[in-house]
Amino acid sequence: MTRPSQARLDLSALHHNVALARELAPQARLMGVVKANAYGHGAVTMARELEPRVDALAVACSEEALELREAGIHCPILLLQGVFEASELPIAAEAGFWITIDNDLQLRWLEQATLPKPIGCWLKIDTGMHRLGALPTQTTSFYQRLLACGKVADLPVLSTHFASADELHNPQTWQQIELFEAATAGLEGPRSAANSPATLAWPRAHYDWIRPGFMLWGNSPFAEPQLQADRLRPVMTLTSAVISVREIAAGECVGYGGSWQAQRPSRVATVTIGYGDGYPRTASNGTPVLVNGRRAALAGRVSMDMITVDVTDLPPVAVGDPVVLWGEGLSVGEVARHSGTIGYELLTRMPMRTPRVITAD
Ligand SMILES: *Cc1c(COP(=O)(O)O)cnc(C)c1O
């Protein structure tokens, strides 16, 4: 007896998405972003699959990077937020991690550190996100200090991060590109700016390294159709099955708080998946759910272990029938829009309770 709720992970979709990123930015090197447990997909499994296909990986912090090293991942791993204290630096250098330098304090830690070997550095410039990074006017002095400290392997990579690249008509991305190019003009070294939306839709921002995360998992970062994003294939399909079907009279309510009321005699299917399995409790009545491959509508509040779906308009539904919550045939972004969030959050929040099952077809 196994509960049918699973997050199926299609590795061939991952390979396809990596190939698409390569095709879109053929002259750039590719850094696969696997922070936050590879956006809920499983960092070690995904990193093993990515390592032969990318030039480097990126995570948020040393703990995430060490987990990958302990699992036998050998490629360079960038710490996207750099280090949180000076004592991490020798460990990071020894382990072959690359660090981000965001500010004067991190730079001073590096200048004062004793390292077993030189360390790869990415100098981050704040071109408008206003979260991390040196001011554009500090770029040259930070860059020179990195060269002068004698602890940096190769030339520093000059990087920045976009605030609104997922909005195809937002002029902020152009402003950030212009500021980035002006701030780094005349400095030698590779450049990097592109997250997933910029990899897909802002070729001017590809430069020497692209850094996609979300698109590798096969979902569009855009709210609207986009030529390249629509070629992605979802890696994760969250599946479950019907465990009960009942007829209810018009006027009856379903689930906790009776938040959905039948407007006609209705058939309701109960599915064994809930917020304890990563399906968002905020999903509203009407959120699409695939039952036997057909779209039906969530009816009633999401419970910890179950949801209820209005299948009145579907051909007869039976116990054991397959259900897809998102993935193949239903994008996580669409479910997220019905839940007041984005696909990134739904994937990243997937709890360990939900078994990850590898498929490769
Ligand atoms: C998370 C992150 C990325 C990847 O962003 P996606 O939108 O998931 O592609 C790239 N660069 C930095 C600095 C990040 O923090």
How is this fold's topology laid out?
Blueprint: E1 6-10, H1 11-24, E2 29-33, H2 35-39, H3 43-50, E3 56-59, H4 62-70, E4 77-79, H5 88-95, E5 97-101, H6 104-112, E6 119-124, H7 139-149, E7 152-159, H8 172-184, E8 191-194, H9 196-201, E9 209-210, E10 236-248, E11 253-254, E12 260-261, E13 266-271, E14 288-291, E15 294-298, E16 307-310, E17 322-326, H10 332-337, H11 343-348, E18 356-359
Parallel strand pairs: 1-18, 2-3, 2-9, 3-4, 4-5, 5-6, 6-7, 7-8, 8-9
Antiparallel strand pairs: 1-10, 10-13, 10-17, 11-12, 13-16, 14-15, 14-17, 15-16
Helix pairs in contact: 6-7
The structure holds pyridoxal-5'-phosphate (PLP).
Descriptors for this entry?
361 residues; alpha/beta; TIM Barrel; Lyase, Ornithine Decarboxylase, Chain A, domain 1; 2 domains; eight-stranded parallel β-barrel; six-stranded antiparallel β-barrel; 11 helices; 18 strands; 26% helix; 24% strand; binds pyridoxal-5'-phosphate
CATH fold call of the largest domain: TIM Barrel
- Strand arrangement across the biggest beta sheet: 2-3-4-5-6-7-8-9
The distinct ligands, each listed once, are: pyridoxal-5'-phosphate
Mean pLDDT: 97
Order of helices and strands: EHEHHEHEHEHEHEHEHEEEEEEEEEHHE
Overall number of structural domains: 2
Number of helices: 11
Q: What is the CATH class designation of the largest domain?
A: Alpha Beta
Report the principal-axis shape.
elongated
Main sheet attributes: strand count, strand direction, barrel closure: 8 strands, parallel, barrel
Q: What would you call the structural class? A: alpha/beta
Range of helix content: 25-40%
The CATH superfamily of the largest domain bears the name Alanine racemase
Share of β-strand residues? 15-25%
Query: What does the radius of gyration come to?
Result: 23 Å
Can you tell me the CATH architecture of the largest domain? Answer: Alpha-Beta Barrel
Termini gap: 25 Å
